[in-house]
Q: What sequence folds into this?
């Protein structure tokens, strides 16, 4: 069964690096969003069962996306990928429903480790 994956980051390079780091054998359909507004629209359209979410973006940041999804009772598997590695930020995203936090720059094996840990692979 194909899994809808949403990659959300205002940087095209960052989105490309995340997509490249996804396991090749993973049966997915990838959608990209450049800000939180686009992310919510794509999620509501069923394109974000798994979401890789940046925190620092224009229009609507990753924290606001997480807050909105939590308020809506969303059931997404969200991994935050951010350069904001402050312990408070990491704790806050987990309280808002993210399952994991990966610091930038992205290490490809980190995504595989998390997906395996949660039975997604």
A:
């Amino acid at each position: 069964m194909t899994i809808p994956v949403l990659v959300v980051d205002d940087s095209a390079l960052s989105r490309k690096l995340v997509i490249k780091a996804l396991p090749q054998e993973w049966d997915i359909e990838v959608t990209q969003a450049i800000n939180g507004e686009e992310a919510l629209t794509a999620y509501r359209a069923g394109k974000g069962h798994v979401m890789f979410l940046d925190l620092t973006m224009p229009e609507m940041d990753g924290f606001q996306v997480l807050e909105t999804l939590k308020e809506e009772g969303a059931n997404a598997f969200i991994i935050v990928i951010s350069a904001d590695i402050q312990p408070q930020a990491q704790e806050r995203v987990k309280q808002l429903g993210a399952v994991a936090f990966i610091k930038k720059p992205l290490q490809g094996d980190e995504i595989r480790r998390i997906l395996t840990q949660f039975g997604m692979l």
The radius of gyration is 13 Å. The chain is about 40% helix and 20% strand. The chain has one domain: 3-117.
